Amino acid sequence: MEAPDVWVPDNEDATAPSMRDEGAENIVDVVSEHGSDFPGQIHPRVVWHRNDPNTRYRGFQHMLQITDPEKRAVEFIDGFVIPEVGDIDDWKKADEFITIVEEEHGLEEGSLAMSVIVESAQAELALADLRDEISKPTNNLGRLFLLVDGEVDYTKDMRAITPTGELPSWPELRHNTSRGASANGLIAVDGPYDDIRDVEGYHGRMTDNQAKGMLGIWSLTPGQVVEANKAPLPPKTGSWLLDTNDHAAELKEEDTRYVYEGSALELEETSDGRYRLRVDGDERELNADELREELLDLIEYVPSMNDIVDSMEKFQAAKEAGKGAIAMEQSVTLLIDRTEINITKDRMWDEATYQAAQTPITLFQDVYENRLDQHEELKKMYGRNVVERAMNVG
Amino acid sequence: MEAPDVWVPDNEDATAPSMRDEGAENIVDVVSEHGSDFPGQIHPRVVWHRNDPNTRYRGFQHMLQITDPEKRAVEFIDGFVIPEVGDIDDWKKADEFITIVEEEHGLEEGSLAMSVIVESAQAELALADLRDEISKPTNNLGRLFLLVDGEVDYTKDMRAITPTGELPSWPELRHNTSRGASANGLIAVDGPYDDIRDVEGYHGRMTDNQAKGMLGIWSLTPGQVVEANKAPLPPKTGSWLLDTNDHAAELKEEDTRYVYEGSALELEETSDGRYRLRVDGDERELNADELREELLDLIEYVPSMNDIVDSMEKFQAAKEAGKGAIAMEQSVTLLIDRTEINITKDRMWDEATYQAAQTPITLFQDVYENRLDQHEELKKMYGRNVVERAMNVG
Amino acid sequence: MEAPDVWVPDNEDATAPSMRDEGAENIVDVVSEHGSDFPGQIHPRVVWHRNDPNTRYRGFQHMLQITDPEKRAVEFIDGFVIPEVGDIDDWKKADEFITIVEEEHGLEEGSLAMSVIVESAQAELALADLRDEISKPTNNLGRLFLLVDGEVDYTKDMRAITPTGELPSWPELRHNTSRGASANGLIAVDGPYDDIRDVEGYHGRMTDNQAKGMLGIWSLTPGQVVEANKAPLPPKTGSWLLDTNDHAAELKEEDTRYVYEGSALELEETSDGRYRLRVDGDERELNADELREELLDLIEYVPSMNDIVDSMEKFQAAKEAGKGAIAMEQSVTLLIDRTEINITKDRMWDEATYQAAQTPITLFQDVYENRLDQHEELKKMYGRNVVERAMNVG
Predict the structure, then answer these.
(1) Band (A245; pLDDT cuts 50, 70, 90)
(2) Which of B175, B177, B363 should we substitute to test contact with C (largest number of C Cβ atoms within 10 Å)?
(3) CATH number of A6-230
(4) With contact defined as beta carbons under 8 Å apart, do B160 and B126 qualify?
(5) A239 to chain B, minimum CA–CA distance in Å?
(6) Between C128, C155, C197, which is nearest B356 by CB?
(7) Are B218 and B190 spatial neighbours (Cβ–Cβ below 8 Å)?
């Protein structure tokens, strides 16, 4: 969990402008020495700018230098990350330089991947052009791999201003990047999360990204790498949430009951077998059935890895038995202000539900197959049995 | 109100894959028998997939089968719904098959409508290409009718993950679908709302959709059909809302006053003729004018059908009298914590306000003209006089 | 501050349809008489409609009329605002008419600017096509200047409905307009804010717009002009905010301490040197370090003009000294419920942070250079020294 899926040795912003020729040589040294030990892929970032031919030419020279077969780094290098791209014709310029690099060094055409950093309005527009351009015979854009959002430079390019200087959250950019990745079989990755100490914020950003189909995120520190590796994984144990207007509170398991300890919701059984429920200041009198219906709307279940695998296996069995849809049922006993109440949640699963539920499992399988170094830890986390079933389901 | 505007007999997800040839025959049986009684349009859904030529060919065969003139269903069929389309060239493949179906069965070219389900990133991108393609001479895309969002499959295609497995709300997709519909004279329709028992949630979704210009929604149950028919209609009686940070509370009419019963806002008249107002914990001392200004920002009026027709008639009369803009005034007496206060809200109406206000009326007129079966119920709901004026205004 | 950067004498919605020929003559009279006194640019709005050739032809005639050299208004006119444009080919029609106007009146080709009002789905789609079209040899779209959103007509064109008749906030439209402006070197401007008395709402809208890179806004009244001129300027003095779930409260400076007076957060020092913190109802026991970390997440600083210039100068000096990144530190003493606590916030600045922080300064410099009439007031507001440093930094 300490190693990222993709390691990006940086010769752009992290290196002083005057030191970048040495920076490229540094990358060669580090990768040729340690590349064989690294379990993920290696994609150095070189300099590039849509508005500056000199920067583009330097990026080209650095790529030539880094992949020189005599320097023995190229055998560990999977591709390059190109920052500051502009519209789709600018992407093609970088692609063409990589094609020439491949030709010069006797590498197979298209064998080096290319990832771009979307950090300008022009590049965001290019995301919508990509599908029409990616398979044209005069380019090798099929080498594209990651679409990375770079929010700091994007904010500058969009001339956006916030009172505190914080970055806007740019939901539309992230949507468009994710959509471009999905339409072209690529992977959408979010940019750096600046506030390094704010682990909760980093998690919140990943949750938000995942709901947009943006499955990766830049990591700046070893701590962020571990968080980023773990965040997309379903939890080991499921949990119940109670979601009121303001936020979702996790219910605490006690014996077999789930206890609500917040103050946004108050419940009292009145003498005549009816209930008084107060949610965010609104008070209502309800009978048991009405109360159940009300609470049903407020509680949510976060399934564990085991739960997801279970449900998928159940649906697969049902499908083999000729059923197109089955109901998945889940019961829970809630304890709110000393009042106990039983609730059953059911959800209809059909082929589409099944396939949508499959995304975290497919991601798990993809990472597991490519990251032998994580096998032990994952088995420790989930148990060998769950991991094996997760690898076989779907 | 029990019949939808469009009935979609389904031969895709609701039918087991092995039963779809029989499913097509079923549609023929049902439509030929009951088609003449159904007051809306009929558009069966056939199978299709951007990535699978075999599925596309089956969809083509089912369309041929369903529209066979000898089977006597085609006279009631207005078009087909094509799911799982990809980019615009994939839409053209479906369009071409329908053209061939029309030719084979002696139907007028372009007479069968085509609706698509937007449930992939590719199809979302196609929404922006449509205007450039829709009137090209080599296709009949002019047959397009509904653009339907399919969020379950879209979530899968975008590889999105949420902790609870709930669907993301996809505001950008819905915006882009609505925009595509508006730019091409089509109708944007939202996909199924899974939680069948959650009537409030279904309503909330429709309100959100309508604010995006997405005027239709899929209905899965008879109950949802009634809700979906009624939701876009302006209410019979207007209502006043008081909107604090957290949510909008409807004020209760008592005699001629509107009473606030929530707890987010507290008001007290102090001895010296001034007021103490507390909103969400912030307390302020105000004089009567300042109080009125403050409350003006917090209250909102939801106009009834009668109110909207009234305002439109007033503006039309003003326009005929040579005025370009008039002020619409509305007074209300509020009762908050036993303190009574009079407030007058006015809004400037010009041609643009008038035309924007017209959307719900135009929708009403459009449905009314096409759905003779709803006339009685609408007259019962609003009164004959309001309905007649609503049909004549604008 | 009383004059806008751009004055748009209106011959569209503000003029009755039957009076528009006289309206054009009025513009000639007013501009020829007062044009030399106006410190900003002058761009009259003429009639146009994507669906109506007659309206387009009238707009053409009005432009010919207004720019007639003999009428002596043209020397003060910088361009025209074209409302109700459709897709990009419709923009070209307006551009072509302006080219003919220039030719007829002996003006340099491309010398009259063209601004468009984006108030249809088609025009929103055109924003994404613009970069491919703007430099084609057969048009003069290089004359484009402002991209203005017109939300009232857009709402009508999108057929959107809200219960109260209020306009939707259309975040996607504003994003796409800002993106189109950034990708093509133009300026994105938001449309009119109808509720003229609601100064707070107008401010909130500008803050939201600026976070999207939309730096201008329509002003309908002299009061709105002043607000719109001042809102994008950094404040004279910085301020500390405490941001809880619900909203950000400004802390009150007392001596050298910043006092929190809200009720969303409660703090108490318990006898054993530990703290009890209650945020939005969630209570936690913390030691001093944990408390500091928690508060660090809740407080924000809004920098003054002086602060921004300071930070930029510091970073420039560091860069000259060969450093690529430096930490900017800020300390504050908070007083919450009589408990005093010291907090230090630091942020890493690199080249990208520096450039993103530069946007408000660049905007300030741009306005300052073009608006000699604002120099005195700006110096009075910030002090001569800060203004001079702001003009020299970056």
Answers:
(1) low
(2) B175
(3) 3.20.20.60
(4) no
(5) 10
(6) C155
(7) yes
Give burial (CB, 10 Å; 0-12/13-18/19+) of B4: buried
* Long-range Cβ pairs for the range A225-231 (8 Å, 24+): A225/A1, A225/A2, A225/A3, A225/A4, A226/A1, A226/A2, A227/A199, A227/A202, A227/A203, A228/A4, A228/A202, A229/A1, A229/A4, A229/A5, A229/A374, A230/A1, A231/A203, A231/A206, A231/A207
Do the beta carbons of residue B88 and residue B129 sit within 8 Å? Answer: yes
Mean pLDDT of the residues in chain C: 92
Nearest CA in chain C to A167: C211
Q: What was the ipTM of the complex prediction?
A: 0.93
- So what's the pLDDT on residue A182? 98
- Separation of first and last alpha carbons in chain B: 25
Ranges A71-85, A231-245, B366-380: which has the least confidence: A231-245
Q: In what order do the strands lie in the sheet with C275-279?
A: C265-269, C275-279, C282-286
Q: Running DSSP on this structure, what letter comes out for residue C4?
A: -
Residues of chain C contacting residue B238, judged by C-beta atoms under 8 Å apart = none
Residues B132/B133/B138/B143 CA torsion (nearest 10 deg): -130
Sign of CA dihedral A199, A200, A201, A206: positive
The DSSP annotation for B50-87 comes to TT-HHHHHHHHHHHHHHT-GGGT-GGG--EEEE-S--S
Q: Which residues of B are catalytic?
A: 350
Residue C95 designated active-site: no
DSSP 8-state symbol, C285? E
Type of residue numbered A307? D
Residue of A nearest to B17 (CA): A324
Q: What is the pLDDT of residue C48?
A: 98
The C-alpha atoms of residue B66 and residue B35 are separated, in whole angstroms, by: 13
Taking an 8 Å cut-off on Cβ atoms, the answer to whether B163 and A352 are in contact is no
Mapped onto helix, strand or coil, the DSSP state of residue C94 is helix
What the block records as the tokens of A294 is 């009300």
Delimiting residues of CATH 3.20.20.60 domain(s) in chain B? 6-230
Q: Cβ–Cβ contacts within 10 Å for residue B186, how many?
A: 20
Contact of B219 with B4, CB cutoff 8 Å: yes
What count of residues does chain B have? 394
